[in-house]
Amino acid sequence: MQGVAYSPVQFFGSTSESGAKLFAKLLQSENINANTKIVIDTRENCRDRYPVPVPERKRQLEAALAPLCSNGAALIVTVHLDHSSNLEHGRILEIYRASGDCYRVVFDKGIAFIKENPTDLYQIQEFTYIVIHRFQGK
After folding, report:
1. Are the CB atoms for 65 and 20 separated by under 8 Å?
2. pLDDT by residue (tens digit) across 28-59?
3. Rounded to whole angstroms, what are the CA distances from 42 to 12, 39, 45, 70, 75?
4. Are strands 130-136 and 91-96 parallel, antiparallel or unpaired?
5. pLDDT digits over 47-94, tens only?
6. Distance between CA atoms of 124 and 105, rounded to whole angstroms?
7. What spatial distance separates the first Cα and last Cα of the chain, rounded to whole Å?
8. What is the predicted pLDDT for the residue at 74?
9. pTM
10. pLDDT digits 0-9 by tens, 94-105
11. Judging by DSSP bridges, how do beta strands 114-116 and 122-124 pair with one another?
12. CA distance 48 to 29
């Protein structure tokens, strides 16, 4: 796998560490290796009831996503404060394969609709939709 990019408007909210850990587990793959670049671009709502300073949020997310780098992948996390009053809920995950194939996965909301069971299985907690679009990369 050449690259993974995840660009939500508000990454995991006040549950960022547990959400990021779940995200890392869902992305685990033998295809993630030293040639893989993982880019996480987050938007934090500055009006959040429990705001976390940007440097601390970045550190939390990097620590939670560190397992994705166990095979040498590069991880880039950016955290931005969003001052707009209207944050969107959609998220976009893009997966770039060495073959040139690309997949864009669009979620109508974050991954809070997924609950991990003790058996390492996942349960869908609420109605949502996911769109997967395959296209040829650059």
Report:
1. yes
2. 888 888 999 998 888 776 666 556 788 888 89
3. 9, 10, 10, 22, 13
4. unpaired
5. 665 567 888 888 988 998 899 898 899 999 988 777 665 655 568 888
6. 17
7. 15
8. 92
9. 0.75
10. 888 888 889 988
11. antiparallel
12. 33
Identity of the amino acid at 3: G
Contact 65, 40 (CB under 8 A): yes
Q: Which amino acid is at 124?
A: I
CB 34 within 8 A of CB 1: no
Rounded to 5 degrees, what angle do the CA atoms 62, 8, 105 make? 105
Can you give the three-state secondary structure of 9-28, one letter per residue?
CCCCHHHHHHHHHHHHHHHC
Distance CA 7, CA 19 (A): 14
What Rg, from alpha-carbon coordinates, does the chain have? 15
| Residue keyed to tokens 């095979």 | 71
Domains of the chain: 3-136 (3.30.870)
